Amino acid sequence: MKRAQQGSIEFLQLLMAASVALPCVLFTYASWINYQNAYTVADERIDRSLTIVEGHADNLFRSVDLLLSATNAQIENLSDDNIKQNESQYHIALEQLVSHLPQVLSLWIFDAQGRPLVSSRSFPVPTTFSNFERDYFHVQINNDAGLYVGTVVDPKVPGEAIFGVSKRRPGAEFKGVVAVAIRPSALEEFYKSIGPTGSYAALLRLSDGAFLARYPAPVALGLKLTEHSSTRQAMASGQERGIFSVTSQTDGVDRRMGYDRLAQFGVFVLAGIDETVITHDWLKLMGSHLIFGVPATAGMFLAILYGMRRTRRLYAEAAARENAEDALRQAQKIEAVGQLTGGVAHDFNNLLMIILGNLAVAKKALEKAGDNISDRLRRAIDNASDGAQRAATLTQRLLAFARQQPLQPQVIDINAAVRAAVPLLQRALGEDRQLEVVTAAGAWNTEIDPSQLEVALLNLVLNARDALPDGGKVTIECGNAYVDEAYAAKQSDVKPGQYVVVSVSDTGVGMSSATASRAFDPFFTTKPTGQGTGLGLSQVFGFIKQSGGHVTIYSELNQGTTVKMYLPRSHVTTKESANVEELPVIAGQGERVLVVEDDTEVRRFVSDTLIDLNYVATAADGPAQALRYVRNHPIDLLLTDVVMPEKNGRQLADEVLQIAPSTKVIFMTGYSRNAIVHHGRLDPGVELLQKPFTREELARRIANALRK
To answer: Of 106, 114, 111, whose CA–CA distance to 84 is shortest?
Structure first.
């Protein structure tokens, strides 16, 4: 049952973990897929932008190529002087040619020394400068470079930065070049118009890494990528077109860039998007998933958590009911034993009282007879006495298990109490078995009946002795412990709090779990018939429970057994016990004792014993006769039974003390019920003589009582 319950809880725990783990795994997988899709979408956007930028650049340079070719066609067979002579005519013609190209700032015709002959921008053309050193001019001197695109430079005529595009003038010998000045700003305005502001980038650059135009930042003069830049390395694969991720060398921004090479013009066009935009779009998409996914996952998790807690609560309630049923069965068992014991204890102890008393008288008579009596008769009387005493012990153990023995608790130092019992325990254990006592520094005090604690320790040691047939070790250990609410909830009749623990362990044969579960049951024993009553552990159990404590047993086959007695902690400081002198068995001095007992034979035995002890003994068969006597005769001590038909001994004593307040009272009983014992404890100030008692016990108790 418990295994099935544990399996159910583990399954719910697995579901609860899966309700979180599975969505997390799916979300992670979806995130990865969407991340890839985000880059795919970005690449598609970049590719479209790149197509636009590439088309624009291609159209520009083809238009410039046609413009320069048309200019060369007009001056093909003309000398510099002819061109110069017709400067005004050619100025107008060049001005008309560039009017439809807003990107072109001006169109020029240069001679072989780089001096301007005609310009579309101004008339007459300035003659104070030469463009001989310009790259677009110088590259055409030795060889026809075709359409050549130069770098961005400052113009020699005041104005904005430009880059030149040139063609060699026609002729076998170098006559100069025709060139246009292109405004990078016009390209940058176009790039700005085709993409979102701030996140979009477009570039035009030469194969050597020099920038011609760029957006969002304008081109600075001399801006050029190094050979080791990420962009140039990414574009060094030889492919005409591609897309890559790069950290810009110029502004440090991470971008996803696409490039296209216009081989016929020797330039690259590039378009790209900030990767933060791609990441933002991805996070935005995943955030929309989380808006629905997180509540759904949380709802599923909480539903399973609620189900698991409810299941645990139901199992706990079932376990509590099972524990309650076990406790009820145990209580019923104790109640049954208690009723059985209480029903027979009074009469049985009276019978034992008669038997033991008469055996004592017989034994005393034999002692007076001397050697005339045979040893066999003496042994018979001794054996009868031992048997009766064992029967009395059996009755006391039954009362202990039923929690109906009268306890006389007192605050004790547990270390001192255990050490005081060592000689008795060692004798019971035998010489071939080792006894070790481990006391604890700072052990708390406890309030229990010390004599019953000694009996409990003796029973445990005797059990340990029987579990060590070949010798071994028994360890008694004292200590402190705290029982928490979780442990107390799983036990019956256990309250959380501080306890003093006394453990008795052995290295013997141990017990199986089935045997250990029944170890405290009355009359249950694993010993052969005739070698045990099965009441030793029952007495321990009853005594500890009656004292408000708890007892557990741990055992494994061939490993040994440990019994732990949890005794409630007392915060009262122990006091030195008063040295009450134990008087010897002495005769009385004619004190008047009233014996009240409803059993004729017990009454006769007690009265005869008191008379023999030199007391003036008067017997009454019940409370009515006793009260009549007390009203008319003085007495020194009332010796009364507790359980009687008319009224109990407690009630009788109270009425006697009203008549004669100085009267000493001793109760005698084999079963006290609740007359002088409440909550398992003997009422304060009560003197109790437990039946069956001997002549010596009777003499000492009466002598002690009369001399207080």
So the answer is: 111
Task: Kindly report the CATH class assigned to 1-321.
Answer: alpha beta
Superfamily of domain 592-706: Response regulator (3.40.50.2300)
What order do you get walking across the sheet with 177-182 strand by strand?
116-119, 104-110, 177-182, 162-168, 148-153
Give CA–CA dist 681/449, Å, rounded: 9
Between the alpha carbon of residue 18 and those of residues 14, 290, 309, 412, 637, the distances in Å are 6, 18, 17, 57, 81
Delimiting residues of CATH 3.30.450.20 domain(s) in the chain: 1-321
**Residue 614, CB half-sphere, CA atoms under 13 Å: how many?**
7
Task: Given CATH 3.30.565.10, say whether it is the number of domain 406-570.
Answer: yes
What's at 200, amino acid-wise?
Y
Regions in the chain scoring below 70 on pLDDT: 1, 197-198, 237, 323-324, 326-354, 356-408, 492, 522-536, 574-585, 671-685
Query: How does strand 637-641 pair with strand 664-669?
Result: parallel
Q: Burial letters for 466-496: b for 16+ Cβ neighbours within 10 Å, e otherwise? A: bbbeeebbbbbbbbebebeeeeeeeeeebee
Residues of the chain with CATH 3.30.565.10: 406-570
Token pair, residue 292, equals 């629905």
* Residues carrying CATH 3.40.50.2300, the chain: 592-706
Model pTM score: 0.48
Q: Residue 69: helix, strand or coil by DSSP?
A: helix
